[in-house]
Design brief:
Distance between the termini: 40 Å
Order of helices and strands: EEEEEEEEEEE
Structural class: mainly beta
Helix content: under 10%
Number of strands: 11
Strand content: over 45%
Low-confidence stretches: none
Largest sheet: 7 strands, mixed
Length: about 120
């Protein structure tokens, strides 16, 4: 069973940056996908970005394209979400998750989840 641990959340002003990290307890299999999702109060969990553990393909939600970058460090079993030009509407709990197979935007397709990290964008 994979355990995921997010970190790096916090309070940031609009226009600022944060980098989230998601550390996996073991080495993810080569055919897995690592995804970032977020959930704001009163809203459904939504897809943010995803990356294949092997290979370079990525996928982003339109709302974050050009502002967020997902990357991974295979040696550290860690996936990152670099967030720039943050907006108040980016405020949410951010979760990482993993699944075997192709990138999916539906959170129900992901088997393992971290506990989440709060990101608050406010002046």
């Amino acid at each position: 069973q994979v355990q995921l641990t997010e970190s790096g959340g916090g309070l940031v002003q609009p226009g600022g940056s944060l980098r989230l990290s998601c550390a996996a307890s073991g080495r993810p299999s080569s055919d897995c996908v690592m995804g970032w999702f977020r959930q704001a109060p009163g809203k459904e969990r939504e897809f943010v970005a995803a990356i294949y553990w092997s290979g370079s393909s990525t996928n982003y939600a339109d709302s974050v394209k050009g502002r967020f970058t997902i990357s991974r460090d295979n040696a550290k079993n860690t996936v990152y979400l670099q967030m720039s030009s943050l907006k108040p509407e980016d405020t949410a709990v951010y979760y990482c998750a993993t699944r075997i197979g192709s990138i999916q935007r539906n959170p129900s397709r992901y088997a393992y989840w971290g506990q989440g990290t709060q990101v608050t964008v406010s002046s």
